[in-house]
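testing teh design pipeline on a random one, pls ignore if ur not involved
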């Protein structure tokens, strides 16, 4: 058995009682808690990755209203799925979910698998999501260890191992297997996550009001704010991007990103990376000619947009462009002229969505 962090004489039963009693009295009324439909729990867990609960709620409600069943999502167009995800970021989550849902429909008759082995084979379902679905929807005593849970456990057992190391996560999973209330694994896992979200917060945890403070080693040692230990993440790489807004007879040129990689399948204004020392406007003009066969010159700065991904930061400078000459027939198939009023029908990443908003405001 994998090593765990639970001390020998830890009173597991009393800990479970304290945690579950607190949860039953304090659980938030969240839309994905209203029934135990594994499909809805799955959607919520994917949306909640890297995203705050308050941000997710309206997206979840809109998504489920449009796709109330796994079948309805499986049959949907990817374009529509991405459109409903627009603004939530990390779009590969939506694409993977869509593909996995299709697989569940074709391979498992539309029933979300209820074993770790099968569910873990689905695209985008990592150990945390698998554990969350199995425990919350199917009441299986499976660990669901995310950042919140690692923070709580690091403090509860005064763990100084780096939570970014896979070996540490494994030990936390083994700890949950020891601790989990087998009579109610669904509530147990949700209670730990809720405790991390509402009480044992990253900064200034509310130890005095915490239902499990009597069990908490970090609280007793007065070191809760030093934990968890997290190895330094690399700072995101800065990338300068230059984009063009090119208008022709009330229409604007947009372009669809490739089907894989960053922001796959989303629409954007033509843009390219600027190398250090290069002139912004020259870079853009050259790119428009090489990629879209459009000779254009810049006609004013529209805006600057900054956007940070987990590993990079875009400094996007946007210019209005005027066409001097164009070879219509040479436009790549991924590019399209669209009416300004039709831009809302396309899914843009957050950064380019800001350009859309600006154009719509200017057009009003
Ligand atoms: S006592 Fe404090 S540090 Fe310990 S689990 Fe509760 S809130 Fe977190």
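output:
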């Amino acid at each position: 058995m994998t090593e765990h962090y639970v001390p020998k004489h830890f009173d597991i039963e009393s800990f479970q009682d304290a945690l579950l009693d607190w949860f039953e009295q304090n659980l938030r009324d969240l839309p994905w808690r209203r029934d135990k439909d594994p499909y809805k729990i799955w959607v919520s867990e994917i949306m909640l990755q890297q995203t705050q609960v308050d941000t997710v709620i309206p997206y979840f409600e809109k998504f489920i209203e449009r796709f109330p069943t796994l079948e309805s999502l499986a049959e949907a167009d990817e374009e529509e799925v991405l459109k409903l995800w627009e603004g939530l970021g990390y779009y590969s989550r939506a694409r993977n979910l869509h593909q996995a849902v299709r697989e569940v429909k074709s391979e498992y008759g539309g029933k979300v698998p209820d074993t770790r082995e099968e569910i873990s084979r689905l695209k985008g379902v990592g150990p945390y999501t698998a554990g969350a679905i199995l425990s919350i929807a199917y009441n299986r005593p499976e660990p669901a260890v995310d950042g919140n849970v690692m923070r709580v456990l690091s403090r509860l057992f005064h763990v100084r191992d780096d939570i970014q190391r896979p070996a540490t996560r494994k030990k936390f999973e083994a700890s949950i297997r020891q601790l989990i209330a087998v009579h109610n694994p669904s509530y147990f896992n949700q209670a730990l996550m809720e405790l991390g979200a509402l009480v044992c917060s990253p900064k200034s945890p509310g130890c005095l009001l915490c239902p499990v403070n009597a069990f908490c080693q970090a609280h007793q040692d007065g070191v809760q704010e030093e934990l968890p230990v997290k190895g330094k993440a690399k700072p995101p790489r800065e990338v300068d991007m230059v984009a063009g807004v090119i208008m022709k007879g009330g229409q604007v040129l947009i372009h669809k990103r490739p089907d894989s990689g960053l922001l796959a399948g989303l629409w954007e204004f033509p843009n390219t990376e600027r190398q250090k020392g290069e002139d912004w406007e020259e870079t853009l003009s050259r790119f428009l000619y090489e990629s879209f066969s459009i000779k254009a010159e810049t006609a004013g700065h529209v805006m600057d947009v900054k956007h940070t991904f987990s590993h990079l930061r875009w400094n996007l400078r946007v210019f209005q462009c005027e066409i001097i000459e164009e070879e219509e027939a040479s436009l790549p198939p991924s590019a399209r002229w669209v009416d300004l009023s039709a831009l809302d029908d396309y899914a843009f990443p957050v950064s380019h969505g800001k350009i859309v908003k600006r154009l719509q405001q200017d057009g009003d």
